[in-house]
Amino acid sequence: MNRKVLVVGLLLVVPLVAVLFMMLGRDPHIVRSPLVGRPAPAFTLPAVTGAAIALQDLRGRPAVINFWATWCGPCVQEHPVLQQGAAERKDVRFVGIVYDDKRELVEQFLRARGSAYPTLLDESGTTAIAYGIQGVPETFFLNAEGTVVAKYGLPLDPETLSQYLALAGAPPPAAGKGR
């Protein structure tokens, strides 16, 4: 009887310990995505102001695709970081894609807080589904060829933005700009 309990206990504990051991050293803030290393899913979405933008319009330079919403506190927190990054990094294309929100609220938000890059409306949610969005903010970093090189699932700070832009192949910011 005791031998059976020991064997069953080991069969339950050993796999659990193995899984926990494999997770050691991994940054829990990094969101793993099956898109990393693959071409970014194509989209053509209407802009809040201006003409529609397609994924192919972003090719030729590294790109940042940020999924966000007006009701998302962390999105509000990272908005100035993205604004500053877009204003200072003309070598990178920034695009915001609004997730599960209303055009009127987005327009109010952008009027109050500014907009240094295009904001697109994913009214059907199909682009968010294609990118595997689980919540906002989620930011994808693409190289100049349109391949996803990283996904980040927390509000960006200037240092993290710079690190991920480097992964995407963006040149370092000019002296006195960026962080």
- SSE topology string: HEEEHEHEHEEH
Determine Rg (CA atoms, Å): 20 Å
How many individual β-strands? Answer: 7
CATH architecture assignment name: 3-Layer(aba) Sandwich
How many domains? The number is 1
**What is the distance, rounded to the nearest whole angstrom, between the alpha carbons of the first and last residues?**
64 Å
Major sheet strand order: 5-4-3-6-7
Shape: elongated
Arithmetic mean pLDDT: 90
Q: How many distinct helices?
A: 5
Name the CATH homologous superfamily: Glutaredoxin
Largest sheet: 5 strands, mixed
Q: Just give the CATH class.
A: Alpha Beta
Please explain how this structure is put together.
The structure is a single chain. By secondary structure, the protein is α/β, with parallel strands linked by helices. It has one domain (27-167): 3-Layer(aba) Sandwich (Glutaredoxin). It has helices spanning 2-23, 73-88, 103-113, 126-130, 158-167, and strands at 44-45, 53-54, 63-68, 93-98, 119-121, 138-142, 148-152. The strands form two sheets. A five-stranded mixed beta sheet has the order 5-4-3-6-7, with helices on one face. The N and C termini lie far apart (64 Å). The model has no long low-confidence stretch (mean pLDDT 90).
